[in-house]
Amino acid sequence: MSTHTAQTQLQLLGKLILSGELHCETGLHIGAGKGSLEIGGADNPVVKDAFGLPYIPGSSLRGKLRSLLENAMGLTSPAELVYLSRRRGQEIRIHQSDRPDDEIGLLFGRAPGRVERVEGEAFEMRAASPARLTVYDAPLDPESITAQMRENLDDEITEVKSENAIDRITSQANPRTLERVPAGARFKIRMVLDVLCEEDKALAARLFEGLRLLEDDALGGGGSRGSGRVRFANLKLAWRNRAFYSSGGAEAELAAGADLAAIQSAVANGFAEKLAN
Q1: Residue 156 DSSP code
Q2: Cα gap 175→218, rounded to integer Å
Q3: CA distance 135 to 120
Q4: Cα distances (Å, whole numbers) of residue 142 to 104, 136, 223, 228
Q5: pLDDT single digits (tens) 49-87
């Protein structure tokens, strides 16, 4: 539980930098939307950068972490949810509150304004919190797509998974295809956690909790049908205090070449003391 209060003063103490790799244990599909549908291509293509390479949008990874943490912390009951969109059939509900110790609001940020609750009356959000967590787009490591893999792929760097929905009365098939980044692909991740007060140091544990949850969940579409299992590896955790930015001070390396279990262990053992101002 956060110890933030309405009187907590914010001033940059430093930045916690997490970098490393995200490994695809099964095929990964993060959709590009119907607007990029190509003739002869899959019904659901993956998002690609300007060079035609798949990547993981920071918004997709960040949003999944937020969703997993909201569920884990018991913040998805109707009383805790607000509408981002009430468009029929496309309702979007997320957790939002103006409690000063709300770790979701602290990690992911919140803006003031009128919000409509899923259950109960609308209210005016008065507590504005800058987002502490920044998640960058994760580019594909092209070397992770080996020559042997390319021989068996449908495209140069992606595969096409065929699926069928079966009508329970007539047994009529409704085929669809899903473009996926193949198992074995690696993406380069980078996340930055701003520490704006002493109380923020405890938020690192929430971030790594979310990453551990993701390893036993799924990223992107088709997760319940086998897609999107991922694993984090070769992680580096570094601390850059204000002196790093103001006078060229040294970076403090807290972990290197680690998996999430090792990172969590480092965070559990005197972590706050290691983040010197």
Answers
A1: S
A2: 23
A3: 33
A4: 34, 18, 24, 19
A5: 999 999 999 999 999 999 999 999 999 999 999 998 888
Rg (CA), the chain: 21
Strands (E), 96-151: 113-115, 123-125, 133-135, 138-139
| Residue 229 CB partners (closer than 8 Å, separation 6+) | 24, 25, 26, 218
What's the CA gap between 270 and 277, in Å, rounded? 15
CB under 8 Å to 160, separation ≥6 — which residues? 42, 154, 177, 178, 179, 180
Count the neighbouring beta carbons within 10 Å of the beta carbon of residue 123. 14
Residue 273: what residue type?
E
pTM of the model: 0.92
Number of neighbours of residue 20 by Cβ within 10 angstroms: 24
Length of the chain: 277
- CB atoms near residue 90 (< 10 Å): 7
3-state SS class at 131 = coil
Show me where the domains of the chain are located.
14-56+131-274
Distance CA 159, CA 183 (A): 10
Contact 132, 124 (CB under 8 A): no
Q: 57 burial class (0-12, 13-18, 19+ CB within 10 angstroms)? A: middle
